[in-house]
Amino acid sequence: MKQIRTQVGIIGAGPAGLTLAHWLKQQGIESVIIEHRSRDYVQARVRAGLLEQNTVDILKDLGLADRLVREGHAHHGVYLSFDGERIRVPFDTYTGGRHITIYGQQEVVKDLTDAWLAGGNTLLFEAPARQIADYDTKQPKIYFEHEGEEGVVTCDFVAACDGFHGIGRKTMPKNSYNEYSITYPFSWLGILANVAPSSEELIYAYHERGFALHSLRSSTVSRLYIQVENEDHIDNWTDDQIWEELSVRLGTPGWQLHSGPIFEKSITPMRSYLIDNMQIGRLFLAGDAAHIVPPTGGKGLNLAIADVKHLVDGFVEYYRQHSYRGLEHYTQTALRRIWRAQDFSNFMTTLFHKQDDHGSFQYRLQRAKFDYIRMSDAYAATIAENYVGLPFDALTRFP
Ligand code: APR
Ligand code: PHB
């Protein structure tokens, strides 16, 4: 049996696991990563691409942002559209200069993986973790498979950064947490297309035919989404139909959507989910392993990185000062931001998706919110500060 000994055993090479490994290394703490999938599979997974200011700052501090700084797009505002009326919420005026950066999640994963392996560190691909054992002792273990052989990582702590379908959450005793979830009655059909973006900043749109989002990846690649029914199938949509729908839903007088060849399309369901305990003994959960937000607002990756920050703080305190205090409070600290992001993601989802008939009570509430953004600096500022992401001290200041 393959035997590995390390300080922190990490399951999952997504944004959470990779950032944790790099950050621990910077702090002189050793770790290894065990990843179920192949390197190609992980790096090809298309996901949202919105990085909060906090996330970019962390990646810069870790020396992992060279390509992100070169190729990412800084955005200082966002367009919101309702029934064809488009307004802009500027970030700089409302958040003291904080902004977001558009850079594909799989590019982040690629940069972090390349840097980790180039540094001679351990990351096993195609190595599914099968069991987390002894988390209530000082030597927890991760049993895994790799190249037809069984292996075990013996460590001081296990960090389950293994996404929504991982084994981390399943290992937590059912009576150790409460589960909260909302399943939405709609999904997103997302495309990547070889065409210059039709807008320099993102556009979130409510339309009577449903939600639409205009985003981008580069000066030649656009990323767009439309709301579809949960039962819908990608084969029901021709490329022309997708462009037509995007053009109608995002439309506003004097603006035109450019179309081009679509090279990726898929449908993703929408869910809000969390468990309110992210640790048991020496096992800690971070990222999608513990929570999912609907993508309206692009919080998923940023929440995963925020969890990692709190976990690193706890590990550093443990190894430097032999104190468990930070680790003990990990869930409690992380949950403040998680609930904030759950609220904001749900708010953006509810505001911009079609849920009931045009003219219904629900529709009129949505319309009233949109009108309020236009008339109130306070409301626009609320949206801006949540969208760019609250600073860490803003959420830890109150008792
Ligand atoms: N053994 C090893 N690896 C596993 C196992 C297992 N048993 N189960 C899952 N994994 C791996 C998955 O293959 C995946 O690569 O864990 C990784 C988890 O990565 P992500 O799903 O990207 O989760 P996370 O790092 O928390 O990042 C959150 O991902 O879903 C998006 O929108 C979300 O942007 C957010 C981000
Ligand atoms: C994306 O670019 O993929 C994206 C941007 C913002 C979102 C969701 C997805 O809210």
Question: Which blocks of ≥5 consecutive residues have pLDDT under 50?
Answer: none
- Quote the distance from N terminus to C terminus: 48 Å
Number of helices: 14
Structural class: alpha/beta
Largest sheet: 8 strands, mixed
What does the overall shape look like? globular
Give the names of the bound compounds. Answer: adenosine-5-diphosphoribose, P-hydroxybenzoic acid
Helix content: 25-40%
**Rg of Cα set:** 21 Å
Roughly what is the average pLDDT, rounded to an integer? 96
Give the strand order of the largest sheet, numbering strands 1, 2, ... along the chain.
7-6-15-16-17-14-18-21
Indicate the proportion of strand residues: 25-35%
| Strands, total number | 21
Structural key phrases:
binds adenosine-5-diphosphoribose; six-stranded mixed β-sheet; 27% strand; 399 residues; globular; alpha/beta; eight-stranded mixed β-sheet; 14 helices; binds P-hydroxybenzoic acid
Structural commentary:
The protein has 14 helices and 21 strands. The protein has 399 residues and is an alpha/beta fold. The strands form four sheets. Strands 7-6-15-16-17-14-18-21 form an eight-stranded mixed sheet. A six-stranded mixed sheet has the order 9-3-2-13-20-19. Helix 1 runs parallel beside helix 9 and helix 12 crosses helix 13. The relative contact order is 0.16. The mean pLDDT is 96. The site of P-hydroxybenzoic acid (PHB) has 10 residues, from loops. Adenosine-5-diphosphoribose binds next to helix 1 and helix 9.
